[in-house]
Specification:
The protein is of the alpha/beta class. The chain contains 20 helices and nine strands.
């Protein structure tokens, strides 16, 4: 199986949001003002669904903060959830990003961090779960009464030890926070340290909850701000998984750890689709001289960009889902000749059906869905907004070609009939309106039937189109062995 990685958006150090195609600098400015306002220390949840560009935004915002003389730590929790305790991940990131790389770091800061680790070691040593460890050594098969007696005695001894060591552990805990505050004070006197924790919602539930607990209990000090880039819904699933109960009120539970939520607004689909078109080099294919000399070639760019936005809006796609459509289309182009019909809008529509409505895709492939139902499903995507008003011609074009290719496909099955319930004919057989034009065999709700007929007839006259919907499906199904990250 081949894997295609998404291109990494370059973060310009001088102008971090220069390559942001989603106009998100304004959100960084808002969040920075929040950090300034609550700089004494808090935990901010940055909520956005998977695939909405949170990681790219966090990296850009990190550089924006660095340029404004903030101290920052970036942690990808998902890449580190193999460690036994999140403290290692957090403190290791503190050291590697704030202390070790700084040229001429004051010796007092390094010394203070070493002291911090010494205290943490003392705390960890006193906090070993002796009870679980000792009970695990017991052999199976012992007499139940003997085992119960031994376990009870051992548990009592451990409890006594726990009570005796409580004060020592509490003192070590307080010492740790005091020492951490001293280190933070040496690093920054004014602006808080901003710790950006990314991909926490993708970690295993145990690790994700432990990260929240460590932040709450150990880092609740002045001038340290944690920002958790998560999908709140998915993180709630992790909490329920950790406690093994679907009835737990995870959203309320999260309020114990997160002081403030900020929802990352939905992206500008048009800007993002334009960005993907250029990033994946579609212009080299669609805008070469040979293709641009044909009327079909001249509208391919507008069709691809325009219709992909329509698909995204009507299906509420995430950025990652949109990118997957573009990646799949890009790979598929390698199987088309330079002068072949591509029909990018139809390709993307079928790709969308294949991924998210496989039963519908199967019915189209098998020729068991009639024109009335297929037409209604397409027209349901048409949203009455300003973008659609400007791009409805692209939707008309994709719709007309889609219907024509499906008609050719049905001919393979010998279907060309209509009755009261099913319509498997594109046109009314041998019937014309009063102006001598063919009429569609089904009703349209949002499209002008005459415009649709004109587009279909232009393809039949100019290109003698004899391709079927299977032509596109074959190209699409060649990509089954490819996945994108």
């Amino acid at each position: 199986m081949s894997t295609i990685k998404s291109p990494i958006v370059e973060v310009n150090k001088e102008n971090p949001f220069e390559n942001c195609k989603l106009d998100r600098k304004k959100y960084a400015e808002i969040l920075t003002s929040i950090v300034d306002t609550y700089g004494n220390g808090f935990v901010l949840g940055l909520d956005g669904a998977w695939g909405t560009g949170k990681t790219t935004f966090l990296k850009m915002w990190e550089q924006y903060l660095l340029n404004d003389e903030y101290n920052c730590v970036y942690i990808n929790a998902w890449k580190n959830d193999y460690v036994s305790d999140p403290m290692a991940m957090i403190l290791g990131s503190f050291y590697s990003q704030l202390i070790k790389p700084v040229e001429g770091t004051k010796e007092v800061i390094k010394s203070g961090f070493d002291t911090l680790l010494t205290i943490l070691g003392r705390l960890a040593k006193s906090g070993i779960p002796v009870l679980a460890k000792s009970l695990a050594k017991k052999k199976f098969g012992e007499d139940i009464a003997e085992l119960f007696e031994a376990v009870s005695e051992e548990a009592t001894n451990v409890l006594v030890d726990e009570i005796k060591s409580y004060e020592e552990k509490q003192q070590s805990f307080d010492d740790f926070k005091d020492q951490l505050q001293k280190v933070v004070n040496k690093i920054t006197q004014n602006k808080p340290i901003v710790v950006l924790v990314d991909e926490l919602d993708r970690c295993n539930p145990h690790f994700a909850v432990k990260v929240l607990e460590r932040i709450k209990h150990f880092f609740d000090i002045d001038r340290v701000v944690f920002v958790l880039g998560v999908d709140a819904t998915q993180l709630s699933h992790s909490i329920r998984g950790y406690y093994g109960s679907e009835s737990i009120q995870a959203e309320e539970y999260l309020k114990r750890f997160i002081d403030l939520w900020y929802y990352l607004p939905e992206p500008d689909y048009k800007a993002y689709c334009d960005f993907l078109y250029e990033t994946y080099g579609f212009s080299k294919y669609f805008e070469n001289k040979k293709r641009m000399n044909t009327s079909e070639g001249r509208i391919e760019k507008e069709e691809m960009e325009g219709f992909s936005v329509i698909l995204a809006q009507s299906n509420n796609l995430s950025l990652r889902q949109i990118e997957k459509l573009y990646i799949r289309t890009k790979v598929a182009l390698n199987s088309f000749n330079t002068n072949s019909f591509v029909f990018p809008g139809v390709f993307m529509l079928l790709s969308q059906y294949r991924d998210y409505n496989p039963e519908l895709y199967k019915r189209i492939k098998n020729g068991t869905i009639d024109f009335t139902e297929l037409s209604n499903l397409f027209e349901d995507m048409i949203i009455d907004d300003e973008y659609m008003k400007l791009n409805k011609s692209r939707a008309y074009h994709v719709y007309a070609i889609f219907m024509l290719l499906y008609e050719k496909h049905l001919e393979k099955f010998g279907k060309s009939f209509s009755d009261k319930n099913k319509t498997f004919s594109l046109f009314l057989s041998n019937q014309f309106d009063i102006e001598g034009k063919r009429e569609l065999a089904f009703q349209l709700n949002k499209f002008d039937a005459n415009k649709v007929v004109r587009i279909i007839e232009s393809y039949e006259v100019n290109y003698g189109l004899d391709l079927t919907i299977q032509y596109i499906m074959d190209k699409l199904e060649l990509l089954d062995q490819f996945v994108s990250e």
